[in-house]
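User: My collaborator sent over this chain with a note saying "see what the structure looks like." That's all I know about it. Can you take a look?
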Amino acid sequence: MLRARALCALALLAVAAQAVHLDFEKGLKGWEHSEESKWVGRFVAEVPGSLEKKALKVPDKAKHYGISTVLKEAVDPAKDLVLQYDLKLGNGLSCGGAYIKFLTADKAFTPKGLKDDTPYTVMFGADKCGDTNKVHLILRHKSPKTGKIEEKHLKSPPFVETDAKTHVYTAILRASNNSYAVLVDGEEKKAGSLFEDFEPAFNPPETIPDPEDKKPADWVDEAQIPDPDAKKPADWDEDAPIEIPDEDAKKPEGWLDDEPAEVDDPEAKKPEDWDEDEDGDWEPPKILNPKCTEAPGCGEWKRPNKPNPAYKGKWSAPLIDNPKYKGEWKPKEIPNPEHVKDPAPLTNIGKVGAAAIEIWTMDDGYFFDNIVISNSVEEAEKVRAKTWEPKKKVEDKEEEEARKKAEEEAKKAAEEGGKDGEAKESSGEEEAKKEDKEEEEDVYADEL
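Assistant: Without extra context I'll predict from the sequence alone. Here is the result:
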């Protein structure tokens, strides 16, 4: 009995969930930059703003960055896979990637040898530029039938949080029921079936259109055609204009026929350095005629147009059903040589052996932190509660204080503006009283 219990305990340990938690409290220890020539960007470890612990920072704009670390033990997605990381976009995200590649385990891989085509198991995280705004979730799946490796992209992924606060992104891949979920700040933003929500599909269709099948030359796929027996009516005038002058219109009263719409600016003066020999005769700029602003119009009055009731446009024969129509042509279906039913696709995406941040960005001030690679949802939740939630409290407080300060400054500015208005009004009253007194004194002086 004891021996059986011991064996059972060993079995449980063998399938126990793995959990890797990577942070940058000790700087870049354990991480190495790639020696790839194009990746000239160099990450640094700094404390973001008013937070307490260091994170991995993108210090410079418009550069390629590549850095990675090898895990002590690969994490197997066949036991579920949970990926998570913190991202703070200190200066926003206008154009760049801020995702993480979870590299496929390979004993030959070294961080210095990281390249943009280094095989990965999952690519997950923020990416925004132009019309692109998504939280990527891409799995590299190997067909158990053909051995072909193909990227499977999540359809309609969530949007990126682009403010300057720290957000935590979580991807959950469940091998038990072939489902997934994407969380932002612990809130589920997208969830569903691996078989339904990824493209191309993990299980290719049973049949495909025959690429060798060609549409016959005599195939008619026009459902309707112009009626060959139709004739243009005798009274159809194709030359009739769309609009004609409105004979019922009358010139508005007060129309200034002799006034131009624009006149010379009376306040304009010829520049002192104007040279008529080189610059020609100087002419003042034009302005709208002030007289026209109070009148219904200026200049020559023209009768407006109205729609022509006789207009019919170019005649064309009405459409009728095509007697030769055979329907929409489609190539015949043939068995798909790549068709396979993979009941457990997470067993064919490879174990995660390393984490890499391989990006190009036009921004700076990104901060990555608290990268989790695990088989346990609970482990990711614990890390989120321990590391991200304290950051959220600090940043929410700062945001609230900034909001209150802005409101106070706006209120103060409004009050000072009111005082200025009262002061001006009081000054105006004093000036008016002074003018009245001077006028009275003048009248008195005249009488004397």
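A starting point for your reply to your collaborator: Helices lie at 2-14, 276-279, 290-293, 377-447.
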